[in-house]
Each structure stands twice: as C-alpha cells, then as structure tokens.
TrEMBL record:
AMP-dependent ligase C-terminal domain sequence ranges: 377-468
Protein's name in the database: Coenzyme F390 synthetase
Signal sequence annotation: none
Source species: Metallosphaera yellowstonensis MK1
Lineage, highest ranks first: Archaea, Thermoproteota, Thermoprotei, Sulfolobales, Sulfolobaceae
Superkingdom in the source lineage: Archaea
InterPro entries named in the record: AMP-bd_C_sf, AMP-dep_Lig_C, ANL_N_sf
Matches recorded under PANTHER family: BLR5969 PROTEIN
Pfam families given in the database record: AMP-binding_C_2
Length: 470
C-alpha cells in the first residue's frame, strides 16, 4: 500500500504542475516554472501546511525510526495543523541517525521498508565528523530535486539549449549534486552538460583547462576557491576563461572573493552563490539581490534555533539552521539540523526581477556552527577571515585557519602569496586581517606559503583546519 500511495503522490505532484513535465521550455520563457515560483503567498502557505501535515503523518505511520523517536520525546503528530507548528516537532541531529545506522545498517530504520528496496540513488555525507550518514532517493525525490535544480539553472543562470554547462562538483563518493541529479536537470533545460569533477582538477589540470577552452564553457559550477584557482591559472598561462556565469557551491563567497572572481574571469557577468546539502536542501542567491538566497518553499521549511536551548531564535538573531523536506517520503528528514549558522530573518516580498514569491534569507549562510572559533573571546567564522585575506596584495586568496584550542590567544593562519615576504609586507597583512575582524595586529600570526601549498579536501579549500585534541 505504501508503494501505491507513493506513486500516487508522485503523479499528483506532476499533474498539479509543481514538477514541470514538459521540457525544455521555449527559450523565451524567463521562469522555469512560473506557476510554482510565483504563487500567491496565501496559496504557498496552504501548500506548506498541507505537505507538513502529510509528511508527519506519513513518517508516524510508515517509519519505525520516527515513531520511536517521537514517542520518546512525547511528541503528538496531531498537534501539527499549520506549517508554523513545525517548531513543535523534536529536532533530529546527525548523532541520532548514526546510532540508528550503526544498529541497523546500511540505512537504519529511517527508511520506509517497502520503498527501501526501490531506491534509485544512494547519497552519503563525507563522514568528516564521524561515520557517514546515507540517504536513499526514490523516483519521486529525484524528480523533485531535478525540478528544484532546473528552476535556478534556467531562470537565474540562463542554462538553456545551446548553452554549455560544466559541473566541477564532486563526481564520486555518493554525492547527490553530481551526475545523478544536476546533469539530469541540465538535460531538462536542453543544455550541453560536461561532468568534469572538481576533485580531479589538481591531477588533470592541463586536461581540464583544455576542455574549458575548446568547449567554450558558458556556465561553470564549482567552489569559490576552485573558481579563483582556475582563473588564476588561466591568467598565468595567457588565456581568458570563457565562463559567463559562475555558480559558487560548497561555501558562502565573501564579498571580496566575488570581486576577485570577476577580475580573474573577465568574461563573467554573473556570480551566484548556491547553498545546498548532499541530502537535498538548497537555497540560491537571486541575481540583483546580493546575498539573498531564495528557498523553494513548496520543497522544504526552514526554522532557526538557539543551539544551546533548541528554542526558536528571535527574529534577527543568529542560530542553528533546521530543515524539513516536504516531499521526501522514501527517507523522510523532518526537523533535521543542518548545522549551519544563520540569521533568523527572511523577506517574502516578490523579488523585483522575476516576481518570485518564495522566501529569501536576508544575508548569506556564512558557515557551519562547528566552524565557529574564538580568538581573545571574539567569535569568528572563516568567511570573515576570507574577506580580509582578499584585501592583502599579491595573495591567491587561499588560506587555512589553524584552530588549536577552544579559546585561542592568536589567529594562526596559513596564506598563499606570490611575492617574497619581508617584515613590512607581513606587518601590513596582519594590520589588514586584524582590522577587518576586530583584533590587534600582534594577535595575528601568518604562515606564508607559495601558491599551491594550502590544504585542500578534493575541490574544497580546507578553510578550517581543526588541530584540537579530540
């Protein structure tokens, strides 16, 4: 019966137009899915309320993990009547999933048994903070996520027929934003998709640079740091990168980082921050609204809590990001902590360029809660340091913050530079860093290295190097 209900819901989502079923659209269409993207707020909130009640009821009736977990927390599913009631649901954190996974491998008891045998894609986190957690995607979940990708690719990035898009995200390791989903969204848009894979850039640099030049890639998707590196390599080798649109994944791009990207990519007219997680959460920066990331509210609900109390953060306060996927039935993720540190403030006025009515974060998502660190009692995040590093002359923008204690006396940082370092250069650099993040110059210690000597993890610069004893 669960399989039949699942297939019925999938058909209804397509027939009601939330998942576009005819594609690619005519290139003259500005929005990928005008109906879904410009719904009246009242209708959108009705959809959210209905889908929240539905996924909570589904999880209670079909998922042993949620039934047991919610009972242990004294949660009554019938208390959820409106989307605002999402805050009544107990928060789920990754440690709970890991315990269940270890006891009931490979997916734990969080997957619907009848659907677990029919998954089409297995996703997994990196496991950098412990045992990886796995996600199972069925036909419905894949279809909706491809729809969500196509919305911003077509509408914001202009990914349409005859456009060449290169995906330099992770092509391996169970990563959902690779070929299983993003390339499929490309085909919906009618574009040419190149699955390059950012993690191989360092070992196949000449090959990748040749592909960029020969194929005249229009849109490049990778991390802000790899975008910068590719542009720097192009300038050193004497050619101009062809990219017109830069999609910035894997970490919020600091303001000065974007400025540098336009310098090293002279043909780029647009740089868009794309925030997302392996398990299918996403928010996309709207062009002409710097730092404001739109949420597809027919897809998920975000709320923000004080990480110490789990109580909802007050409006305007920063806290821990919690999310509920409204259409993930194979493996529901309900009120699941994403661990990002964000401001609890959203705008819902239609954006002036496209008329999209879905809510937007008022500022970028700066980083994960565990990336926060203290120097002289001052709470910092890597993005604040990144903005300052990009003001130092002759650096590549690449850096590693060495976190050696919970309370640090100095900011210890490794920075790449192209010039020989003398006392004057080092002193000026420490003044720039200290001034931007509110420290004294003698509270900053820089280890200068030549280009290519900072620490990376695949296609991501390791901005936060944790040296604390576990």
């Amino acid at each position: 019966m669960t399989l039949q209900d699942y297939n019925t819901m999938h058909s209804e989502l397509r027939e009601s137009g939330f998942i576009r079923s005819s594609y690619p659209p005519d290139p003259s269409e500005t929005l990928w899915n005008k109906k879904a993207m410009t719904m009246k707020r009242e209708e959108l909130e009705q959809v959210k309320s209905f889908r929240l009640r539905r996924i909570v009821k589904w999880a209670w009736e079909n998922v042993p993990f949620y039934r047991n977990y919610w009972k242990s927390k004294g949660f009554d599913p019938s208390s959820v009547r409106d989307w605002r009631d999402v805050v009544k649901i107990p928060i789920l954190r990754k440690d709970e999933l890991r315990k269940d996974l270890q006891a009931n491998p490979p997916f734990g008891t969080i997957m619907v048994p009848d659907l677990a045998r029919r998954i089409r894609f297995v996703g997994a986190t990196s496991g950098s903070t412990g045992l990886p957690t796995f996600q199972g995607w069925g036909a419905l979940e894949l279809d909706y996520f491809e729809e969500a990708q196509a919305r911003y690719l077509w509408t914001f990035a202009g990914v349409k027929p005859t456009v060449v898009y290169a995906n330099y995200l992770n092509m391996s390791g169970f990563y959902s934003w690779g070929p299983p989903l993003v390339e499929t969204a490309m085909w919906r848009c009618g574009a040419t998709a190149i699955a390059g894979g950012g993690e191989t850039y360092f070992s196949w640099k000449n090959r990748h640079n040749l592909i960029f030049r020969l194929w005249k890639v229009d849109v490049l998707a990778t991390t802000p740091w790899l975008h910068r590196l590719v542009g720097e390599e192009a300038r050193l080798e004497g050619w101009e990168s062809p990219f017109k649109v830069l999609l910035l994944h894997g970490g919020a791009a600091a303001e000065n980082t974007k400025r540098k990207l336009f310098q090293v990519h002279p043909n780029a007219r647009l740089a868009i921050s794309v925030w997302g997680t392996t398990d299918g959460h996403m928010a996309i920066e709207v062009p002409n609204l710097d730092g404001q990331l739109v949420i597809w509210e027919d897809m998920e609900i975000f709320d923000i809590v004080d990480p110490k109390t789990d109580e909802p953060a007050s409006e305007g306060e920063r806290g821990e990001l919690v999310a509920t996927l409204l259409n993930h039935f194979t493996m529901p993720l309900i009120r699941y902590s994403l661990g990002d540190y964000v401001k609890n403030e959203f705008v819902t006025d239609p954006d002036p360029t496209y008329g999209i009515t879905h809510a937007r974060f008022v500022e970028p998502i700066p980083g994960r809660v565990e990336w926060m660190f203290k120097v002289r009692g001052k709470l910092l995040l890597p993005i604040y340091v990144e903005d300052a590093v990009n003001e130092i002359p002759d650096t590549t923008g690449m850096f590693n913050i060495m976190v050696y204690a919970n309370e640090m006396d100095k900011l210890k940082i490794r920075v790449e530079t192209r010039r020989s370092v003398d006392r004057e250069y080092d002193s000026r650099a420490r003044e720039i860093l200290a001034g931007r993040i509110g420290l004294n110059p003698d509270e900053v210690e820089i280890e200068w290295v030549e280009p290519g000597k900072t620490v990376w993890t695949g296609y991501k610069l390791q901005v936060f190097v944790d040296q604390r004893k576990k």
